Task: inverse folding
């Protein structure tokens, strides 16, 4: 792009990781291309980061690092690690304690270890799988039929449940795929889009004719961990930061605040809801802010939940607003509890426990945060995190805090023999927080993107990935689209 004589102004609505990443990469790409760009990031809440929320709790026993939202990011999607390094956080990156990587599954009320060698949903080691009580003998035979079942080659989407039942059987869906894979998305396996959430499974099926053969080949041929910086050992599959994922938000905000100004400058504004959005005859946009203020923008990025984007898009793109209404949401929550190690009578020595929907429990999973990552609890103490809500235990969202705490303590007593009261607890409730990637999601998103008028952009977790790296990548791509759109106008 050639330098321009006029300043283009971008309004970014939403100060979560997608919105902040869009501003960061807009700043970088403008500097690299010579574009004259300014932006304003508008966030209705009193803090930055959206669902990224890290709390440090100081106690007489020492310091605990409590995550209210995501606790890590996957390194096979490199954009999270790349951004951390660009922000000077390379020496703060923290891998998981992979020696403790075991996961348990609640099976008929009892925590049962996942067999060694299970990659996502496919066993890659024979004897540990054969000896495991998690799957019945008939269920194991049914999983083995994956080697004989012809692949689906029509390219059409299907639910995760249909895919797993077709290839591995109903028991594998119930005991492995549903709690692990649907749990990641807080979704219902019978509605969850395979192509929008786990497209690699379809790729392996088509390429190798069998999911099992594909996973074995993938393990042999190279899905190795991402390399570390400067020749250091490879990264863990999941990474965090020493002070929690909130460090990434703090570093982003500091970078955006301290950046040299271009054009009319940059602005980051909290406590600033956008009430209306209109597209003017000149092709630019007018934002009506709370309190009567207006803001003009050449481009607008909606980095907010789809239902918030829907309300704003009515005045600028009615067709897009209708499409945004098709994206469902569920509410979720977590409760973190601190204990003395001595009070955990039956420790589950691993990253945690997942709970199949068929167990009909008020909790979806338990993570042993202080085993998963170092520095989350003082020596001699444990930090646990219990997940609830979504489509799998919506009744728990309706409990008040006292009832929720009592319910969760009852589950931990049953799972781990914990009778003692926690040293402290923290409850985080996220209302209408998780977009549901139902079958056909990618087609709906493509139709939304095609219907957007010039200068209006959608980005973030409702669209093309819910994890931190996905949202960072979307922010990067959105920044490129904004500048590329102006470049095309100037060339044309």
Result:
């Amino acid at each position: 792009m050639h330098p321009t004589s006029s300043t283009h102004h971008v309004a970014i609505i939403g100060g979560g990781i997608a919105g902040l990443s869009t501003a960061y990469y807009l700043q970088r790409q403008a500097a690299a291309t010579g574009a004259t760009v300014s932006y304003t990031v508008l966030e209705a809440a009193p803090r930055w980061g959206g669902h990224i929320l890290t709390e440090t709790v100081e106690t007489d026993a020492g310091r605990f690092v409590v995550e209210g939202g995501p606790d890590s990011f996957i390194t096979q999607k490199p954009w999270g690690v790349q951004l951390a390094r660009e922000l000077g956080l390379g020496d703060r990156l923290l891998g998981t304690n992979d020696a403790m990587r075991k996961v348990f599954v609640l099976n008929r009320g009892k925590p049962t270890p996942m067999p060694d060698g299970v990659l996502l949903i496919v066993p890659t080691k024979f004897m540990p799988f054969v000896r495991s009580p998690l799957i019945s003998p008939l269920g194991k035979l049914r999983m083995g039929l994956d080697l004989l079942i012809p692949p689906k080659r029509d390219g059409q989407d299907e639910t995760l449940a249909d895919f797993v039942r077709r290839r591995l059987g109903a028991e594998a869906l119930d005991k492995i795929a549903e709690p692990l894979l649907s749990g990641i998305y807080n979704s219902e396996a019978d509605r969850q889009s395979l192509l929008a959430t786990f497209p690699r499974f379809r790729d392996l099926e088509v390429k190798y004719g069998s999911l099992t053969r594909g996973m074995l080949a993938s393990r042999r041929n190279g899905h190795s961990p991402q390399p570390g910086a400067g020749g250091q050992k490879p990264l863990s599959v999941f990474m965090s930061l020493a002070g929690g994922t909130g460090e990434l938000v703090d570093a982003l905000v500091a970078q955006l605040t301290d950046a040299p100004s271009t054009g009319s400058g940059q602005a980051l504004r909290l406590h600033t809801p956008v009430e209306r959005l209109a597209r003017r005859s000149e092709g630019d946009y007018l934002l009506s802010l709370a309190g009567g203020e207006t803001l003009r923008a050449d481009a607008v990025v909606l980095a907010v939940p789809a239902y918030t984007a829907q309300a704003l898009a009515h005045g600028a793109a009615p067709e897009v607003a209708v499409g945004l209404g098709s994206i469902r949401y569920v509410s979720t929550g977590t409760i973190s509890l601190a204990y003395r190690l001595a009070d955990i009578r039956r420790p589950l020595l691993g990253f945690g426990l997942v709970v199949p929907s068929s167990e009909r429990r008020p909790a979806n999973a338990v993570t042993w945060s202080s085993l998963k990552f170092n520095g989350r609890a003082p020596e001699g103490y444990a930090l646990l995190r219990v997940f609830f809500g979504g489509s799998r235990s919506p009744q728990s969202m309706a409990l008040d805090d006292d009832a929720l705490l009592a319910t969760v303590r009852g589950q931990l007593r049953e799972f781990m023999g914990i009778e003692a009261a926690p040293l402290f607890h923290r409850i985080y409730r996220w209302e209408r927080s998780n977009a549901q990637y139902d079958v056909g999601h990618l087609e709906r998103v493509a139709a939304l993107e095609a219907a957007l008028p010039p200068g209006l952009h959608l980005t973030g977790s409702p669209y093309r990935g819910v994890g931190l790296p996905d949202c960072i990548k979307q922010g990067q791509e959105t920044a490129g689209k904004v500048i590329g759109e102006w470049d095309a106008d100037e060339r044309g």
Q: What stands out?
A: The chain has 16 helices and 22 strands.
